[in-house]
């Protein structure tokens, strides 16, 4: 993550909030999702108004409740330490009679002689009565059920998942906490299905944020940002009482979504449902002002959090640089390297005279660039596979692939970016369109590319160099035609390429290629085109 300027942050937050705000208006719950929810809820008992009130007073937001055995039969276990929700359970007393000694006995314990007297009406009887005892139930959130076990539109459906560098994220949020002068800890009450709560301080007591102990990492981070937004935007009595509940929840969740998204934490589905539930059909006064305050709070949070998170990234970058140095020094496989960073690319340039960086840079207008040394074509050596993998890694491409990839080492065609990688089928379609265009214009452009085959059960990722292709010369239709014509690949490799190309054609994705090539002379960079196609 490269640190952005304050203006870049503002622009990023503005884009995020505008996109989400537009999505709220078009959000709807489909008939299928509603039917799924209604079917799910038929499993649960419909409680009386009195019991429903009792349940909500003990566990706010409870939606699906059942007793211990009910959950056990469904395959779920009540979590250890959970406190039962008490309800009233109606029971009937047994009818009774008074025996000859004046004692009340249950009729089902009457002797044969007593039954005769009862039938004659000679013994006093008392009919059965109704009384209420205590029962125990548990909400679904008190069990080990997963969010995936619930319908998509289940109210209070929780977020599940881990957050990368979770402790560092909490420490960064603690910086925001300190700046806002609030405390974070246990809730002051049972939160029930609520994920967190913001408590306004009274007298000398500070504002406090309580998090539901049932939250996991992803829910905790999102909720903490949400509650910190309440503290920032609604932490004083005048701010608190001048806005409606809908307006406050809109601001808090929008801030949480923007900040989480900035740091690559996806809460979009959860946040969209939450925002729509609170605001659809409701009037928000001066929405533009509400959003402006959201953006200000989000940027402020990001400014405080980012330096703290960058410390950890700096450590990761250093570890990644060391791994990269070792990999290229000893010519080891780089497929397990995950993080691509500027320091690793700078290392190649700073040590370009050394043997172990040979082939990992090229010269452009006299300047060394991290990439392939095209002038000497050093890739065509026994270390070719390693060099291409290093180059792909430097560019940020994931080598853990499932489909065959095309790696363009260099090309004279302005539409094709040097040292770029994409699905082979996409690249094949692009080059076919370019072949048609250049033939019509009587032009041809030399292009050198390689095919990267995914690992399978009996081999590792394999890279095959293909003869130079002159796009526009008319010798072949596309790269797929070229490799079949040259017949230098293994049968299994050809089969993999055939499957990829035919699958692509069957989906009709070649239309997107045509659209891309129509844009301003087709000079958009290949990487952008590939992103649009994915």
In short, what is this structure?
The protein has 18 helices and 16 strands. The protein is of the alpha+beta class and 534 residues long.
Write a structural description.
Residues 336-341, 372-383 and 519-534 have low confidence and may be disordered. The relative contact order is 0.07. Strand 14 and strand 15 form a beta hairpin. The protein is 46% helix and 14% strand. It starts with 5 loop residues before the first helix and ends with a helix. It has 534 residues and is of the alpha+beta class. Strands 12, 13, 14, 15 and 16 form a five-stranded antiparallel sheet that branches. A three-stranded antiparallel sheet has the order 1-6-2. The longest helix has 43 residues, at 287-329.
Mean pLDDT: 80
| Number of helical elements | 18
The termini sit apart by 22 Å
Kindly state the percentage of residues in helix: 40-55%
Q: Outline, from the CA principal axes? A: elongated
Number of strands: 16
Percentage beta strand: 5-15%
Structural class: alpha+beta
Stretches where pLDDT is under 50 for at least 5 consecutive residues are 336-341, 372-383, 519-534
Rg for CA atoms: 34 Å
- Sheet of most strands: 5 strands, antiparallel
């Amino acid at each position: 993550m490269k640190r952005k300027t304050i203006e870049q942050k503002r622009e990023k937050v503005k884009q995020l909030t505008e996109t989400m705000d537009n999505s709220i208006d078009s959000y709807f719950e489909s008939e299928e999702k509603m039917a799924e929810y209604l079917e799910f809820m038929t499993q649960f008992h419909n409680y009386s108004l009195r019991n429903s009130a009792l349940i909500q007073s003990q566990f706010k937001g409870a939606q699906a409740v059942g007793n211990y055995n009910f959950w056990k039969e469904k395959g779920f276990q009540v979590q250890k330490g959970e406190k039962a929700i008490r309800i009233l359970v109606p029971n009937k007393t047994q009818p009774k009679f008074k025996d000859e000694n004046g004692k009340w006995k249950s009729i089902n314990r009457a002797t044969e002689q007593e039954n005769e007297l009862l039938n004659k009406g000679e013994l006093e009887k008392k009919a059965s009565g109704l009384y209420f005892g205590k029962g125990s139930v548990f909400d679904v959130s008190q069990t080990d059920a997963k969010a995936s076990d619930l319908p998509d539109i289940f109210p209070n459906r929780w977020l599940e998942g881990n957050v990368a560098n979770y402790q560092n994220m909490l420490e960064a949020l603690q910086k925001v906490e300190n700046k806002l002068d609030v405390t974070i800890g246990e809730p002051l009450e049972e939160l029930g299905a609520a994920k967190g709560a913001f408590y306004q301080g009274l007298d000398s007591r500070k504002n406090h944020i309580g998090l539901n102990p049932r939250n996991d990492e992803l829910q905790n981070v999102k909720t903490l940002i949400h509650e910190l937004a309440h503290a920032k935007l609604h932490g004083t009595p005048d701010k608190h009482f001048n806005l409606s509940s809908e307006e406050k929840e809109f601001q808090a969740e929008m801030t949480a979504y923007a900040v989480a998204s900035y740091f690559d934490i996806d809460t979009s589905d959860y946040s969209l449902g939450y925002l729509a539930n609170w605001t659809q059909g409701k009037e928000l006064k001066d929405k533009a002002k509400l959003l402006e305050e959201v953006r200000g709070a989000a940027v402020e949070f990001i400014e405080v959090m980012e330096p703290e998170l960058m410390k950890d990234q700096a450590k990761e970058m250093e570890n990644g640089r060391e791994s990269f140095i070792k990999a290229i020094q000893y010519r080891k496989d780089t497929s397990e390297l995950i993080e691509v960073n500027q320091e690793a690319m700078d290392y190649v340039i700073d040590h370009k005279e050394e043997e172990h960086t040979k082939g990992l840079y090229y010269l452009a207008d006299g300047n060394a660039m991290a990439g392939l040394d095209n002038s000497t074509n050093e890739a065509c050596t026994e270390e070719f596979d390693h060099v291409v993998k290093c180059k792909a890694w430097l560019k940020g491409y994931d080598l853990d692939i499932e489909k065959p990839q095309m790696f363009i080492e260099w090309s004279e065609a302005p539409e094709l970016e040097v040292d770029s990688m994409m699905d082979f089928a996409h690249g094949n379609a692009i080059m076919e369109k370019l072949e048609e265009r250049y033939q019509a214009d009587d032009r041809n452009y030399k292009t050198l590319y390689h095919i990267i085959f995914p690992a399978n059960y009996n081999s590792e990722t394999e890279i095959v160099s293909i003869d130079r292709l002159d796009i526009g010369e008319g010798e072949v239709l596309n790269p797929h035609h070229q490799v079949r014509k040259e017949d230098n690949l293994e049968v299994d490799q050809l089969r993999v390429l055939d499957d990829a190309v035919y699958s692509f054609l069957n989906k009709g994705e070649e239309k997107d290629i045509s659209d891309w090539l129509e844009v301003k002379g087709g000079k958009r960079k290949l990487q952008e085109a590939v992103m649009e196609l994915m």
